[in-house]
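Prompt: May I have another protein with tokenized structure?
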Amino acid sequence: MRVSVVALGKIGLPLAVQFAAKGHQVVGVDINEKFVELVNAGQEPFPGEAHLQELLSETVADGRLRATTDYADAIPGSDAVVVVVPLFVDETTGEPEFGWMENATRSLAEHLSPGTLVSYETTLPVGTTRGRWKPMIEEISGLTEGQDFHLVFSPERVLTGRVFADLRKYPKLVGGLSEEGAKRATAFYEAVLDFDDRPDLERGNGVWDLGSAEAAELAKLAETTYRDVNIGLANQFARFAGEHGIDVHQVIEASNSQPYSHIHRPGIAVGGHCIPVYPRLYLWTDPEATVVRAAREANLGMPDYTVGLLEGAYGDLDGAKVVVLGAAYRGGVKETAFSGVFPAVEALKARGAEVSVHDPLYTDQELQQLGFTPYALGAPVDAAVLQADHPEYAQLTPAELPGVKVLVDGRDRTDPARWAGVRRIVIGRSVRP
């Protein structure tokens, strides 16, 4: 097959490589000229994705994958077009910002050939595929969905850093606007993906047709919103436990020993492109979802709560030298999307602290570009807040933070045995002196 992938980001490029590795001819289109140049040179534009470099080099070298900035080059004659353009949410109103996706949709529609399958993999509010993309593509292309082309929604369900493993591990969900479209999508994904054996799934692993685009849209929102709500509940348990001299981590371990309890871990922040964003996409179409809204608000309040723990243990933070450990939103991933570092730094500055940031994945220049004052291990500091659970921090000692009096470990990553003589506070453990 000839396959076009629209947007070669941290999900789109691995998808393009996966399709090409299965023997198909793939053209990726992206507005980022630098990304396109690097892909065509067989070089990954971003580090950290397992197996991406080796597969990219292989598929570019044998001519199965190439990239372009020109939709007129990428789209015509394609058997399938897969769209993985980012969708953002306004931080104030919670409304989806469809601008980038609309531009991409217009461009692909202008060059769409009859007979093409168009699959959106970007997470969307329920009803978007049918209510927004279908009429836009029909109007611009002059083609009729269900007759001249087929439109489906098939959400990506992978995490950066392990995309190829996740593609094999999880069922591929599809939802069409017609029965024929769903059949075409099923056949397409069966031809471009491999699936691990999953005896734990009654339905088995593979491509799952959910019956409609709306069902597939909701499935992706539901699985991610569940995590946000679960973390919000864990955070509320943690705040209560800490105030009452209870170790919530021990409580969660005990609760989860029973097979119907799956409580997540509490922490300083919920970051990344997915969990902080997708509940807001759900709320946009279901504003009465009070449980979802309360969980999102609870999680948004955790960075300030964590800084409050530091203030309670250290005292007045005015003029105190405080380092935030970790700019990334999660350990081992060089990405700051909705990272807790931003509200944590702001909460510290609001209390008068002199704030610096350390992260083993970022250079001083990169930290400065993010608006932070870089910190080098070994420089004097009064207190520290651990924001990202990088594996390097498991070995951290007070000797690397000379003068540190209080550590608030927002991820329970550090080794308590290494912190004798320093007050170490973990969210969800007793905050009593």
